[in-house]
Amino acid sequence: MHLGLTDDQQFFQETTRKFLEQAAPLTTVRALADDPAGFERAWWSRGAELGWTSFLVPEADGGGSLSGEGVVDLAIVAEEMGRLVSPGPLVPTNVVADAVARGGTPELQAEVLPAIVAGDVVAAWCIAGPRGGWDASGVAIEAVPDGDGMVLDGVSTPVEHAAQADELLVTARTTGGLTQCLVPASADGVVVDAIESVDLVRRFATVRFEGVPVSAARIVGEVGGAAAAVERQLHLTIVLQCAEVVGALDRVLDVTLEYLGDRSSFGRPLASYQAIKHRIADMKMWIEGCHGVTELAVQAVQDDDPDAVEIVSAAASYLGDHAGEILQECTQLHGGIGVTWEHDLHLYLRRITLDRNLFGTPAQHRERIAAAIISKHGPALDKKVAGD
Amino acid sequence: MTDQTESVDEFRLRVRAWLAENMPRLAPDAPPPDRAEDEATWAHDKALQRMLWDGGLAGICFPKEYGGLGLTIEHQHAFTEESLPYEMPLHLNVPHFSILGATLVDFGTPEQKAKYLPPMLKGEQQWVQFLSEPTGGSDLAGCVTRADRDGDEWVMNGSKIWSTAAMSATHAMCLARTDWDSPKHRGLTMFIMEIHQDGVQVDPIKQVNGSLEFCQEFFDDVRLPPDSVVGEVNDGWTVALALLAHERNAVGGGSPYVSGRNYLAEGADGAFDASCVKLVTARGTADDPVARQLVAEAHVLDVVQRGLVKRVGLGMKTGALVGQAAAITKLFTATSAERKTTIRLELAGPDALTWPCGAETIGRGAGEAWLERQATSLAGGSNEIQRNLIAERVLGMPREWAADRDIPYKDVRRNPMPTSPGA
Of B328, B313, B312, B321, whose CA–CA distance to B381 is shortest? Predict the structure, then answer.
């Protein structure tokens, strides 16, 4: 996180780092690769005790932030988790908590939020559409009004930790626009099928809704009026992923520098070759750029900045373009050991690859930016372009 | 007489009132002269500086005893914010005040400060730095311009290059070798030089884009008085390093001696650069998917730069990052400018190649910027030097082996110094 953390934030960062190093070192991450859930609920509850699930929840529902800026505080956790490619449903659970805290009915908030804060409830967000959709345009679930409530039909995939979740936030199409609701994963008509992923411990599933009834109390926000909330949830998801990526990049660069200092060729340390030093310098510059733009994006989401789309998508596209290249470059500098299962680099490559493509590729984020800045700054354009 | 410091708010109100009363407002259709090679630019800025001096607002962070106001950087920021709607002597900020004035504050004797700082602040002088040499810019300590003792005085011979607007400048700080028997960093001395004197020849360098902003100087037995040495004899490298730190700070936007908008640190302030959107709008390519990708890519670089400058500035302030981390920002600014220039060339298409006679078209701007593209990656320390700094000073990787370390400089292999074309 940024280089001016408060004392409280620094203490929290250190506590989280120590806990992760003790309770989920890379050997544990490797062991969890064969575990269907990818994380242990008891471990998750201990993380929740540290505050991992409380920052976006109001104090009245058992939550509270460290600094008054919950998104900034939460990004500290995401960054620390990136350092150790940690398991766990940090992003979806907090995104769902944020959505319910902002748009849920009071009874839903009272039912769900304290349980999320306590670590007893894990949540997932069904937004992704089956044909590569990752934002509102790809939603493939329909909600049809039924009395005070609605009935859901359709499919979402891939959904992070859907098979481990107790509650599913569903983004669905209604005649007037998007509508969101919270559905217990155990509800009749909800079919969850696990799928495999590139990451060792992040679990995904395809979720089908076959005539699932939803009561009015479980509708989150306005019927047909959820577009802004969905955009906020996307931005929150993306900045937490970015924070995770910069944590991973810092660690990978440290590991690579250590290796280059220890390993010799032609009678001198690899780190002494200028050809290598200049490549490392470029990577350091990219990584600091990744940090800088992530910090701006986290703050933009924290502040509900009206220009958040430009800043968040700038972070997503910049990190998407550079993080993978940095990982591949560090693999190259490690030599053959870098492409073995035994070396930990691939754990990081896997996580960074997941975060690169899961919620929009760099090119897709650039298109979002172009749409935003051309319509804002190029008013002389024809209507077709400006209105797209 | 109390020594109570004026509060920032009181100061701001005084500045606001004074500026409204005295300074010309910026008019969009009549911009002040801006080309550094034009004498009119310097005459204009020196006149404005004199107005600030007469109004008691020159040298806000310079010491009181030498004509400054002795106030804090917060006072300076307040002044800058108030000054934005007005014409200001912006060309005097860098290098005159923020590099040379700052170095004089650090290393000048009381006599030197009393002699030079007040006329600097009055706009009577214009200072530049004579550091780079035609024998090599990146290896600054490999300086071969020489100064030899003659009684109390010094006699200088050699050549310097890449000094900004030295034709109109009055004074320079000039690094010269004074001891050839010591290793390279230990035989250098920094001198103050009056530029308009016998033996100094200043030639403008015509750049690829036609600009004459930069100059080369030739020294032929230039005589310098004993009090022209800055710092200690043979300890000029210490002064040069401080000077370079002031330069990075000024270009990076952190100098307390920059008064008014810092046009060198633009892009970091969040102002939207509309050049790419203008290009696609003008050329009707705003709905072309490839063009849209490029417009966005350029914007992403600006957003990242803003975040990076903020992060590195905060990190250096809190001590989380070492001072040399400014090399990260410098390298980013330069490589990002390279990429954005290439993007604008692509977006301009054939419009970058031809234009109506005498017209300043946006396409022409893109084409000419492309011809000059590497300038930012060379000025103020090349990208390669920044990469060395990041690897060695920020990350602690092993230093490069150097053939010239710890041997008398007279025995070091070096490039021949060119002679003056007029000689």
Answer: B328
Q: Which of A195-204, A260-269, B312-321 has the lowest mean pLDDT?
A: B312-321
Alpha-helical segments (H) within B29-99:
39-54, 73-83
Rounded-to-integer distance, Cα A374 and Cα A386, Å? 7
Within 230-259 of A, beta carbons closer than 8 Å to B belong to: 257
Q: Say if strands A219-220 and B127-130 run parallel, antiparallel, or are unpaired.
A: unpaired
What is the number of residues in chain B? 423
Convert the pLDDT of each residue in B351-382 to its tens digit. Answer: 999 999 999 899 999 999 999 999 889 888 89
- Residue B32 CA to residue B29 CA, distance in Å, equals 10
The yes-or-no verdict on residue A249 having pLDDT over 90 is yes
Helix/strand/coil for A297: helix
User: To 5 degrees, how large is the angle CA B180–CA B183–CA B188?
Assistant: 60
CB contact under 8 A, B397 and A288: no
C-alpha triplet B165, B171, B176: angle, nearest 5°: 100
Q: Any CB–CB contact under 8 A between A272 and chain B?
A: yes
Complex confidence, ipTM: 0.94
Q: Around Cβ B242, how many Cβ atoms within 10 Å?
A: 17
Please name which of B261, B250, B340 lies closest in space to residue B304, comparing C-alpha atoms. B340
Residue that the structure tokens 């914007």 belong to: B299
Please, where are the H alpha helices in B349-405? 362-371, 375-378, 383-389
**Cα dihedral sign, A54-A58-A59-A64:** positive
Res B135: pLDDT: 86
**Residue B277 identity (one-letter amino acid):** V
Q: What is d(CA B300, CA B304) in angstroms, rounded to the nearest whole number?
A: 6
